[in-house]
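Q: Hi! First time asking for a complex rather than a single chain. Here are the components, and I think there are two in total. Is that enough to go on?
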Amino acid sequence: MSGGVDSATAAARAVDAGHEVTGVHLALSSNPQSYRTGARGCCTIEDARDARRAADVIGIPFYVWDMAERFARDVVDDFVAEYAAGRTPNPCLRCNEKIKFEAVLDRALALGFDAVCTGHYAQVSDSGALQRAADPGKDQSYVLAVLNKDQIAHAMFPLGDTPKAEVREEARSRGLLVADKPDSHDVCFIADGDTRGFLSRKLGSAPGSIVDADGAVLGTHEGVHGYTIGQRKGLNLDRPAPDGRPRYVLSIEPVSNTVTVGPAAALGVREITAIRPVWTGCEPPLAPIACKVQLRAHGEVHHCTAVVSDGNLEIQLASEARGVAAGQAAVLYDGDTVLGSATIAATH
Amino acid sequence: MTTSPVVYLDHAATTPMLPEAIAAMTEELAHLGNPSSLHNAGRRARRVVEESREQIAEVFGARASEVVFTSGGTEADNLAVKGLYWARRAADPQRSRVFTTAVEHHAVFDSVRWLCDAHGARADWLAVDSLGLVSPDVLRAALATDPSSAAVVSVMWANNEVGAVQPIAGLAAVAREFEVPFHTDAVQAAAQLPVNFGAAGVDAMTVTAHKLGGPVGVGALILGKDLAPVPVLHGGGQERDIRSGTLDSPAIRAFAVAAVVSAERRSLETKRIAALRDDLIRQVLAAVPDAVLNGPQPGPDRLPGNAHFSFPGCEGDALLLLLDARSIACSTGSACTAGVAEPSHVLLAMGADDSRARGSLRFSLGHTTTQADVDALGAAIGEAVARARRAAAR
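A: Yes, that's all I need. Here is the structure of the assembled complex.
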């Protein structure tokens, strides 16, 4: 229970469904303001309090579990290392994979619980496949697609069939005080929302060149971690492109510490190689299958063919995709059902 | 949610109010009057406060004028440690050393750390042995190095986690040799042992109502007449100008009633509770043979209602959750602001490693504890430990 409206309502629905429910709030960061190293809040003490009050209203036991060490190692350090390697990670996905449905789930199972129930907007089919939520605007199947079959078998998403607006209304009618709390959007461990500043503090500055496709130097950067594929703003190039049109980050090369920029047309991608695939909605496709693929959270969906080759997932897009960043997940769908996912490693 | 009766084994956190105290407080709540007012209603309220002060003084072996009411133990500890440090330092800038132990309650422990961080104090952390006990010789050796720099000594009478009862009279005598004021946090001791301010020879002593059957929110610093700590709270000058704030006459009256009633019953209750505690230890060790009893062996060095164990291979908070699900209430014994348990600083100071400190649980017995409570724990602890071990092994 994060302290938000979704997890509170999900917990209440799980109780209604007859489950024996225990509320758990995850303490994910240290608070240096206190002499007590254990004085932690998720992101704020206020969120922990909101979660506790929601548990009170629902009438379930409530505990705070200290996952700060695991979170720092598996999510925050990983986030920083991925940027340092020129990739663009999705920390929410990583948190679902390593914290909520690994560290928390493992502990819960050992303590005698049967499942982890969250306020994510996604559904699980009768056959155990992950599916998009009924509310397409809130669908979170993309950030859950990294879960394996066993993790999904021990997951409950009671909100998956309901539009967000109805969840708020339900929370209000249940007397949950968090009913009007705004949705969270930013990376939870970067409180001020300044990802580049956060990475600079972690990684320091490593000045290098911004070049065009021919290698001509157009400007300088303070570290490749400040850039993501498809980025247009904040490049601070010395001179405009010859045709006067905007330029975008095409590639990031941490070894030579170089950022390459070029026209929008050069951003187009038709082929994607993705690694470490996980298959939950079908058997690994050893022969090409036709399906759809989503390449970033809330991103557009492309028709494609997908095949497993040498253990990697090879994707041929039917239409050109732009701004495809290594480190993001490629999630395959058959209609609304997640077939599997893999981490984007290379594009062509 | 379960509806079975709660097995409450967390009396060191707070203990049920005595019916006599509830009755006295309820009656007093209906009465009008600020004890500092000069009119009749004020005088009536003042009389309640002063009679209560006399009763509390008698229970704790002090003069009425030595009882300074506070909002509880934490405030009394802050007032004693900070106030006496500030007063001593103001009188002689050389006096900047504070002598205390690493097993204190956070109300003392963090006050000392804050004085070091913000007010130029230097802390002498007196070593405790593996049972949590500090020897008067350790204090003497510490004070003997540059006695002219000593500001104040604070050593708790009985430890809230492992129940170790310190040799307070011996420690106070050493402080007296060096003419350094000696404070003791007697919050836990006053709930279960005869605690005598005058006989122990201490200069300042913290007590609180809710550990001995009174209400939460009232306590006292019992303070020698010749000591004038710098106040933490400034205002109307109540309580010898040391602790300003309107006196809470209903709570103070209930505090006095609880102190008197619990003192009357003490000798019988102590024997009864110690016998239950001994049986609890026996049952837990029978169910979990490799559990380790932390702190002194049962006897004069240990609070009669305290049992504190490390369960190798377990996390304390997982055990707490599993017992809570069986309606058994206990504590990991450590402070938790956001609800996250940290390894006990008390056990770490006693030489335990981090995993032993994390895998510990405190069971504390009190006036409502029955044999059925002990048996319920004995029946549940084995399976809970086995399950918590599986969780920790993941």
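A: Helices of chain A lie at 5-16, 45-58, 68-84, 91-110, 141-144, 149-153, 164-173, 195-203. Let me know if you'd like any chain examined more closely.
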